[in-house]
Amino acid sequence: MISDLISAQAEFHYGDEDIAGVAAALLFAGHETTVARIDYGTLLLLTHPEQCDAIRRDPELVEGAVEEILRIAVPHSSGLPRYAKDDIDLAGVTILAGEAVLLTSVVANRDAAASPDPDCFDITRSPNPHLSFGHGPRFCIGASLARIELNAVFSALPRRFPALRLAVPIEELQLRTDVVIGGLTALPVTW
């Protein structure tokens, strides 16, 4: 993508700062978000050993596990502010043009109408219509790369470290609050 931006730099009048800004955003969003999903996903598998054992026995379950990790391991978020372009009637509530609306995948991904038993971590959930990467024109351009990275991690982790377990009580884990994408400050493990 960065190569494409550089190739189109003259045609679209992109400045070096524009390209550098996009490159930095891609690096941050791609790296930090994936790291946060790795720690949340590992924690979910360690606290649901039957799911981890299922992946160890049947590696074909990894893709479903990654989608479920993406659905359920969403950091706490106050939402993305958006403004209604037109008056909208949503479930009997009228949102007037210009009014602020907060969109949060935390709530959307736990919607019982879209995911039965939404608080249950189930790597065999199908379909799994989560919004962890957004939707439509705001869909994350790094979604495919993140899925590849997460599939690689969660394919190897259960096989390589079959005795992996938390090294501290779960109550001692702390959430990162200094970044939008969440994550844990540390995930002490042993094997």
Key terms:
single chain, 191 residues, mainly alpha, Cytochrome p450, two-stranded antiparallel ribbon, two-stranded antiparallel sheet, 7 helices
Secondary-structure blueprint:
Elements: H1 2-7, H2 9-12, H3 16-47, H4 49-57, H5 62-72, E1 80-83, E2 88-90, E3 93-95, E4 100-103, H6 105-108, H7 143-160, E5 165-166, E6 189-190
Antiparallel strand pairs: 1-4, 2-3, 5-6
What does the model show?
The protein is mainly alpha-helical and 191 residues long. The protein has one domain (2-76, 117-190): Cytochrome P450 (Cytochrome p450), CATH 1.10.630.10. 44% of the residues lie in helices and 9% in strands. It has helices at 2-7, 9-12, 16-47, 49-57, 62-72, 105-108, 143-160, and strands spanning 80-83, 88-90, 93-95, 100-103, 165-166, 189-190. The protein has a two-stranded antiparallel ribbon. Strands 2-3 form a two-stranded antiparallel sheet. β2 (88-90) and β3 form a beta hairpin. The N and C termini lie far apart (39 Å).
Structure, briefly:
By secondary structure, this protein is mostly helical. The protein is built from seven helices and six strands, in the order αααααββββααββ.
Radius of gyration, taken over Cα atoms and rounded to an integer in Å:
19 Å
Number of helices: 7
Beta-strand residue percentage:
5-15%
Mean pLDDT: 89
Trace the largest sheet across and list its strands: 1-4
Structural class comes to mainly alpha
Task: Report the order of strands and helices.
Answer: HHHHHEEEEHHEE
User: What share of residues is helical?
Assistant: 40-55%
Task: Identify the CATH architecture.
Answer: Orthogonal Bundle
Can you identify the CATH class?
A: Mainly Alpha
